[in-house]
Amino acid sequence: MQFIQSVDCAIKGIVTAWREERNFGLAITGVLIALIISVYLQFSPLESALFLVASGLILGAEMINTAIEDLCDKVEPKQDPIIGKIKDVMAGSTFIVFIFSFLAGVCLVFSHL
Fold first, then answer.
1. pLDDT by residue (tens digit) across 37-92?
2. Is the pTM of this model over 0.90?
3. 61, 102 Cβ separation under 8 angstroms
4. What is the extent of the structural domain holding 61?
5. What is the CATH number of the domain that holds 100?
6. C-beta of residue 33 within 8 angstroms of C-beta of residue 98
7. Is the separation of the CB atoms in 54 and 85 below 8 Å?
8. For residue 83, with 0-12 CB atoms within 10 Å meaning exposed, 13-18 middle and 19 or more buried, which class applies?
9. Among 45, 57, 98, 109, which residue has the least CB neighbours within 10 Å?
């Protein structure tokens, strides 16, 4: 029963991110577009696996960023330089995951053109 409850909590978290976070919705849209491209270009199983890992990293990083930002806002609702630094570092880490995942996707697509 605990596993089912854990899955239920995870799904609630994904739905919350989808509803409340614009960047998560944009990331989902980007993943869907990339998925269509990967099907059209007939990615190999290995290429598809790389695509899925990159997509998961982007979506997971976005959710971790959101969770930490929300926690920071709860702990310190006023503007604070340390909280600002934490938020900036998290945004930067999410951006790094996005850039490298995007570049991996570009390499996969160009290998088919």
1. 999 999 999 999 999 999 999 999 999 999 999 999 999 999 999 999 999 999 99
2. no
3. no
4. 2-110
5. 1.10.287.3610
6. no
7. no
8. middle
9. 45
Provide the token pair at 18: 């989808």
63 is written with which tokens? 């959710």
Domain count for the chain: 1
**Distance in angstroms (rounded) separating the CA atoms of residues 27 and 81:** 28
9 three-class SS: helix
Tokens of 59: 């979506």
Q: How far is CA 52 from CA 1, 46, 61, 65, 79, in A?
A: 29, 10, 14, 20, 37
Structural tokens at position 94: 């999410």
- Which alpha helices (H) appear in the chain, and where do they start and end? 2-20, 22-40, 45-75, 81-110
Structural tokens at position 73: 């806002």
